[in-house]
Specification:
Layout (H helix, E strand, L loop, with lengths): L3 H28 L5 H34 L4 H31 L18 H8 L15
Helix pairs in contact: 1-2, 2-3
Length: 146
């Protein structure tokens, strides 16, 4: 496909696995919206921005060179502009990814649900209590004394 439209469609096909994963992420966030509304909102926002940035970035990369050539730009002038476009794309990508980082770490309690699991022979009593469903925290100071 020789036109920029054909290259755009080809690019969408190449990027479709990533788009599919982002779409699944949006669907999962919507399914869990009632249970985790803030996390879901941030996830939908981030994945939506990442998806939009992917499609928009692809559009710029296939449309802009043809547009600039029609305006009289040389190949050298066009390629000199590419690092600026890449910088802008990476800055926008970082901004789009930021809500996803917030979604990962928001609404976390200060106590971890998973405590350190007993590992050694000295932890045998603690391991048995933990496996029996004991609710005490298993830390280094809870080890049974020999």
């Amino acid at each position: 496909m020789g036109t920029w439209v054909g290259r755009f469609v080809e690019g969408l096909a190449v990027m479709s696995p990533g788009f599919l994963v982002e779409l699944v992420g949006v669907i999962l966030a919507l399914v869990w919206w009632r249970r985790h509304p803030r996390v879901s909102l941030l996830t939908v926002l981030a994945l939506g921005l990442i998806l939009l940035l992917g499609v928009g970035g692809l559009f710029v990369f296939v449309w802009l060179p043809d547009h600039l050539r029609q305006r009289g730009w040389t190949f050298e002038q066009t390629t000199a502009l590419l690092p600026v476009i890449m910088l802008a794309r990476n800055v926008l990508g970082a901004l789009a990814f930021t809500p996803l980082l917030f979604a990962i770490f928001i609404d976390r309690s200060s106590k971890s649900r998973l405590q350190r699991l007993p590992t050694g022979a000295a932890d045998a009593g603690a391991r048995q209590r933990w496996e029996a469903g004991g609710s005490e925290h298993i830390t280094g100071t809870d080890r049974p004394r020999d």
